[in-house]
C-alpha cells in the first residue's frame, strides 16, 4: 500500500529535479561562445609590414583615407564557458553570447576549424578579386591580385577587399578616392557576381569600427536592425546589397551628390 506524501514532502520531491538542473547549469560548461569587438585592418594599407592588397598587371594609384575590415573575437572552440560568463555576457553591451555552433559551424577540433576558416578566407579573396575586376571590366587573366591578412579567417572581409581593389585601380572613377579621405569600415561576404551577403556579429563590429576611428559603416542590408541595436554615436550606417551599390553610395557620399541609403 502506498503512503500519501504531505504537501511539504511533495514539494521537496518535486524540487529535487529543479535543484539538479540548476546545479548542472552552474557546474557544467555550456554550449556557448562569448564574443566581443575584435581587431580591424585597413585593406588599403599594410598588415604586419606587408601590403594587404598587391596588384600587378594594371596601374595602381595612391589612396587616402581607410577601408577597414572588421572582426569579432570569440572564446576559442575548446574553451569551457560557464553560467557566470554567460550571464555576464548577456548583461553587457560590448559582448554577445552566441551558440557555439553558430560561431564554429564546422569541425570538431581546433585544427579542423582553423582549416575551415582558412579555406573560407581563400574562397572569399578569390570571389572579391573576381567581383572587383568584373566591376571594373578588367580581365582576371591579365591582372594578378594578392591579398594578405594574417590571423584572420572566414569570408566576412570580402566586400572590403573588393572595394580596396577598386579604390587602388580606379578610385571614384574621376581622380578621387572612394573613401573621400574618411575612415570607412564595414563587413559583408561577396560573391563573384558582386552580391553582398550577411555575416553576423555586426553589432560588435560597429563598436570595433568606431573604436578605430571609422565614421561610416557599410553593413549588409539584411543586418540593418542588428547593426542599429548597439550603434555607437557618430557612426553612420550605409546598407549594401551589391558591390555596385556600395561603390555608388561611397561616391555619392564623397561628392555630396545623389542619395545615400540608410538603415
UniProtKB/TrEMBL annotation:
Superkingdom of origin: Bacteria
Pfam families xrefs: Lon_C
Occurrences of domain Lon proteolytic (ranges): 153-243
UniProt-listed GO biological process terms: protein catabolic process; proteolysis
InterPro entries: Lon_proteolytic, Lon_Prtase, Ribosomal_Su5_D2-typ_SF, Ribsml_uS5_D2-typ_fold_subgr
A GO MF term: ATP-dependent peptidase activity
Full protein name: Lon proteolytic domain-containing protein
Organism listed in the record: Streptomyces spinoverrucosus
Taxon lineage: Bacteria, Bacillati, Actinomycetota, Actinomycetes, Kitasatosporales
Amino acid at each position: 500500500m502506498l503512503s500519501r506524501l504531505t504537501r511539504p514532502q511533495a514539494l521537496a520531491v518535486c524540487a529535487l529535479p529543479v535543484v539538479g538542473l540548476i546545479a548542472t547549469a552552474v557546474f557544467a560548461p555550456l554550449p556557448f561562445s562569448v564574443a566581443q569587438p575584435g581587431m580591424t585592418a585597413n585593406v588599403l594599407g599594410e598588415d604586419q609590414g606587408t601590403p594587404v592588397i598587391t596588384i600587378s598587371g594594371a596601374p595602381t594609384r595612391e589612396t587616402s583615407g581607410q577601408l577597414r575590415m572588421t572582426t569579432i573575437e570569440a572564446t576559442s572552440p575548446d574553451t569551457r564557458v560557464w553560467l557566470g560568463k554567460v550571464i555576464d555576457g548577456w548583461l553587457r553591451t560590448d559582448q554577445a553570447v552566441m551558440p557555439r555552433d553558430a560561431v564554429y559551424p564546422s569541425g570538431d577540433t581546433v585544427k579542423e576549424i582553423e582549416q575551415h576558416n582558412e579555406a573560407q578566407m581563400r574562397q572569399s579573396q578569390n570571389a572579391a578579386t573576381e567581383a572587383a575586376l568584373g566591376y571594373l571590366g578588367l580581365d582576371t587573366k591579365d591582372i594578378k591580385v594578392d591579398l594578405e591578412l594574417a590571423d584572420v579567417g572566414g569570408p566576412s572581409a570580402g566586400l572590403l577587399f573588393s572595394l580596396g581593389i577598386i579604390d587602388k585601380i580606379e578610385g571614384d572613377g574621376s581622380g578621387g578616392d572612394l573613401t573621400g579621405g574618411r575612415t570607412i569600415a564595414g563587413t559583408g561576404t561577396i560573391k563573384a557576381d558582386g552580391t553582398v551577403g550577411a555575416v553576423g556579429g555586426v553589432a560588435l563590429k560597429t563598436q570595433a569600427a568606431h573604436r578605430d576611428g571609422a565614421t561610416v559603416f557599410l553593413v549588409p542590408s539584411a543586418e540593418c536592425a542588428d547593426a542599429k541595436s548597439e550603434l555607437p554615436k557618430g557612426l553612420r550606417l550605409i546598407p549594401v546589397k551589391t558591390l555596385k551599390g556600395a561603390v555608388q553610395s561611397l561616391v555619392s557620399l564623397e561628392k555630396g551628390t545623389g542619395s545615400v541609403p540608410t538603415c
